């Protein structure tokens, strides 16, 4: 009787650990479903949209300009941010809005990326805290699942003039 | 013939089952709990690699301790290099967020470490690529806390969390 209960408990614990580990590997190395909140990526991603993120291109260094990525916030490692990659290392970036008369430029240093939200008026991004290290990137968002009316691959950036020319 | 085929099938099945249990469990353990790594380079002399290139130490990296990004001044930690994301660096934590630190060779003489960042330095001043060249690093790049030297056996010891007295922060922000 006791042995049966003990055996059952052990088996349950073992299965929990096993599936927990499989889930960890999947979320860490393959990808998962993420819910985005906040206005910074409108109109590409609205508040509380559900998207699919993949982590493979981070491990193989396949992040390109124009990709939407999830990254750890540089000022708070426990929260994540969702932005578009505007510049890679070595790119010359406009650090203020291009409508300004005085334009200021800076170069993205080695091993860093320049992130900006699509909603330039309402986004805290690299224009505010500077380029962020590549190591903070968690994954790349490429497919929207919810709402169903917008199901499919994500649109290109509405701010294509922000990309560097070279 | 049929019997041998059944045996192969059974063997294959058992192998798959073991494989799909062992690999995820091992990967998760190495990612979340602890792993070992060899230290290369002279940047942490004399705490690590005291003999220079003749021998390299193997350290135990504890991931579980830093799961909430809690580090203390003086801890030896490993981080993802901000300049090269494929590389890990091992340094000593000198200052936490809010501290004001006197730098050595940075572009500013005094630096206030911003929120969510730490200031790391190698013990071998002048031969270390650390916060004095790339500035404060984000806590999100934190990888693990180095707690023990495992190899070579005669150097087996705990890595103590000591802050060099001359590197104390000028002003600390303690809550």
Automatic annotation (TrEMBL), chain A:
Q: What class of enzyme is it?
A: hydrolase
Q: Identify the SUPFAM superfamilies for this entry.
A: LexA/Signal peptidase
Cite the entry's keywords alphabetically.
Answer: Hydrolase, Membrane, Mitochondrion, Mitochondrion inner membrane, Protease
Q: Does the keyword Glycoprotein apply?
A: no
Q: Does the keyword Repeat apply?
A: no
Q: Cellular component terms, GO, for this chain's entry? A: mitochondrial inner membrane peptidase complex
Molecular function GO terms recorded: serine-type endopeptidase activity
Q: Which InterPro entries match?
A: LexA/Signal_pep-like_sf, Mito_IMP1_subunit, Pept_S26A_signal_pept_1, Peptidase_S26
Q: Which Gene3D superfamilies match?
A: Umud Fragment, subunit A (2.10.109.10)
Lineage, top-rank taxon, reads Eukaryota
Please state every residue range assigned to the domain named Peptidase S26.
17-93, 100-146
Under Enzyme Commission nomenclature, its number is 3.4.21.-
GO BP, sorted A to Z: protein processing involved in protein targeting to mitochondrion; signal peptide processing
Give the active-site positions: 40, 83
Provide the protein's localization.
Mitochondrion inner membrane
State the oligomer form and interacting partners.
Heterodimer of 2 subunits, IMMPL1 and IMMPL2.
- What does this chain do? Catalyzes the removal of transit peptides required for the targeting of proteins from the mitochondrial matrix, across the inner membrane, into the inter-membrane space. Known to process the nuclear encoded protein DIABLO.
Q: Which family does it belong to?
A: Belongs to the peptidase S26 family. IMP1 subfamily.
- Name-wise, this protein is Mitochondrial inner membrane protease subunit
TrEMBL record, chain B:
User: Can you tell me which residues form the catalytic site?
Assistant: 43, 91
Q: Which InterPro entries match?
A: IMP2 (IPR037730), LexA/Signal_pep-like_sf (IPR036286), Pept_S26A_signal_pept_1 (IPR000223), Pept_S26A_signal_pept_1_CS (IPR019758), Peptidase_S26 (IPR019533)
Superkingdom to which the source organism belongs:
Eukaryota
**Record keywords, A-Z:** Hydrolase, Membrane, Mitochondrion, Mitochondrion inner membrane, Protease, Transmembrane, Transmembrane helix
The GO terms describing molecular function are:
serine-type endopeptidase activity
Q: Where in the cell is it found?
A: Mitochondrion inner membrane
How is this protein situated with respect to the membrane?
A: Single-pass membrane protein
Biological-process GO terms, alphabetical: protein processing involved in protein targeting to mitochondrion; signal peptide processing
Q: Which Gene Ontology cellular-component terms appear in the entry? A: mitochondrial inner membrane peptidase complex
Q: Chief localization class? A: mitochondrion
PROSITE patterns, sorted: SPASE_I_3
The UniProt record lists the Peptidase S26 domain at 15-104, 106-151
Q: Which family does it belong to?
A: Belongs to the peptidase S26 family. IMP2 subfamily.
Q: Which PANTHER family match?
A: MITOCHONDRIAL INNER MEMBRANE PROTEASE SUBUNIT 2 (PTHR46041:SF2)
Q: What does this protein do?
A: Catalyzes the removal of transit peptides required for the targeting of proteins from the mitochondrial matrix, across the inner membrane, into the inter-membrane space. Known to process the nuclear encoded protein DIABLO.
Quaternary form?
Heterodimer of 2 subunits, IMMPL1 and IMMPL2.
Q: What is this protein called?
A: Mitochondrial inner membrane protease subunit 2
């Amino acid at each position: 009787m006791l042995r049966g209960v003990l055996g059952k408990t052990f088996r349950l614990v073992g299965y929990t650990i096993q599936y927990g580990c499989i889930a960890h590997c999947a979320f860490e190395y393959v990808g998962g479903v993420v819910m985005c909140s906040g206005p910074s990526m409108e109109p590409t991603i609205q508040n509380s949209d559900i998207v699919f993120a993949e982590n493979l291109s981070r491990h193989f260094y396949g992040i390109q300009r124009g990709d939407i990525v999830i990254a750890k916030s540089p000022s708070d490692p426990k929260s994540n941010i969702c932005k578009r990659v505007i510049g890679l290392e070595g790119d010359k970036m406009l650090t203020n809005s291009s409508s300004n008369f005085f334009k200021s430029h800076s170069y993205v240093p080695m091993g860093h990326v320049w992130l900006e939200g699509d909603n330039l008026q309402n986004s805290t991004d690299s224009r505010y805290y500077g380029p962020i290290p590549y190591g903070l990137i968690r994954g790349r968002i490429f497919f929207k699942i919810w709402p169903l009316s917008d199901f499919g691959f994500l649109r290109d950036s509405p701010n294509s003039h922000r990309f560097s020319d070279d | 013939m049929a019997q041998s085929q059944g045996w192969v099938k059974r063997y294959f099945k058992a192998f798959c089952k073991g494989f799909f249990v062992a690999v995820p469990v091992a990967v998760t353990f190495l990612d979340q709990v602890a792993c070992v790594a060899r230290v290369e380079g002279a940047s942490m002399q004399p705490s690590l690699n005291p003999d220079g290139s003749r021998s390299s130490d193997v350290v135990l990296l504890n991931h579980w301790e830093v799961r909430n990004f809690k580090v203390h001044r003086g801890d030896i930690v490993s981080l993802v290099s901000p300049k090269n994301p494929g590389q890990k660096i091992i340094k000593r934590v000198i200052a936490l967020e809010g501290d004001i630190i006197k730098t050595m060779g940075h572009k500013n003489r005094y630096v206030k470490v911003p929120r969510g960042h730490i200031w790391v330095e190698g013990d071998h001043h002048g031969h270390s690529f650390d916060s004095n060249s790339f500035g404060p690093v984000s806590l999100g790049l934190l990888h693990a806390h180095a707690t023990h030297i495992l190899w070579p056996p005669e150097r087996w010891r705990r890595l103590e969390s000591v802050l060099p007295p001359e590197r104390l922060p000028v002003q600390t922000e303690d809550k």
